[in-house]
């Protein structure tokens, strides 16, 4: 299962629409969750609307939180999206087998068994989470909270039975660019994470759409760097075709 977790506090202002980019991610089997980080105010009506639209287009969740709630929210959204993904896959299987995709329509004893399987898959299925961090100037005072949230998320993922990996990106890559930078490739460990944030040069535009597309391309290239549709499906059996 694949997720992009976008952490931002403002509106995109460079490049393609982030809503279009999130819809593309969803079509490639990658869910897009968005956390809007507040700081002594809010992200504004336009920013809040964009955050919601990105998550909807990406088949994920969106939340507006202050820095104190960030760590807990990141963990909650990651796990909730895993369960949501599995539920959709199971419902699709039920519809094919029984002609009815509703778990609630099953007899109580069968329903309990399905719920047990969903819980088990939630803990054992492979999971990759790509953290995409808005490094525009307004995010600078919130960076410590973002670092803590990533650290806590990795600890939470390490407690799962299934293989869990994270990668970390930030955007923009330069003050005047619309690129996105890979800070940490797929890893199951915390080693090296604390060296990322001191190096970030905060500032510049907010090219959210191009950044999402960059992360999607990274997913599709896979570990070996080769492009190809095969990276869309993964190796998780029937779940591979049913990622949100």
TrEMBL record:
<protein>
    <recommendedName>
        <fullName>VWFA domain-containing protein</fullName>
    </recommendedName>
</protein>
<dbReference type="InterPro" id="IPR036465">
    <property type="entry name" value="vWFA_dom_sf"/>
</dbReference>
<feature type="domain" description="VWFA">
    <location>
        <begin position="1"/>
        <end position="86"/>
    </location>
</feature>
<dbReference type="InterPro" id="IPR002035">
    <property type="entry name" value="VWF_A"/>
</dbReference>
């Amino acid at each position: 299962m694949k997720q992009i977790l976008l952490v931002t506090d403002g509106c995109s202002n460079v490049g393609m629409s982030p809503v279009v980019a999130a819809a593309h991610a969803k079509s490639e089997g990658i869910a897009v969750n968005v956390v809007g980080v507040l700081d002594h105010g809010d992200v504004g009506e336009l920013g809040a609307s964009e955050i919601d639209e990105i998550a909807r287009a990406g088949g994920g969740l969106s939340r507006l939180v202050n820095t104190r709630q960030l760590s807990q929210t990141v963990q909650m959204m990651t796990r909730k999206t895993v369960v949501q993904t599995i539920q959709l896959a199971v419902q699709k299987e039920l519809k094919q087998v029984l002609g009815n995709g509703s778990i609630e329509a099953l007899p109580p004893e069968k329903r309990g068994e399905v719920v047990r399987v969903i819980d088990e898959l939630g803990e054992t299925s492979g999971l990759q989470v790509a953290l995409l961090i808005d490094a525009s100037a307004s995010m600078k005072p919130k960076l410590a909270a973002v670092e803590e949230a990533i650290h806590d998320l990795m600890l939470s993922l390490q407690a799962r039975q299934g293989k869990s990996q994270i990668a970390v990106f930030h955007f923009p890559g330069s003050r005047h660019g619309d690129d996105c930078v890979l800070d940490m490739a797929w890893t199951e460990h915390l080693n090296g994470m604390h060296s990322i944030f001191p190096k970030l040069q905060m500032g510049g535009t907010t090219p959210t759409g191009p950044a999402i597309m960059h992360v999607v391309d990274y997913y599709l290239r896979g570990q070996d760097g080769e492009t190809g549709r095969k990276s869309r499906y993964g190796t998780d059996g029937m779940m591979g075709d049913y990622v949100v």
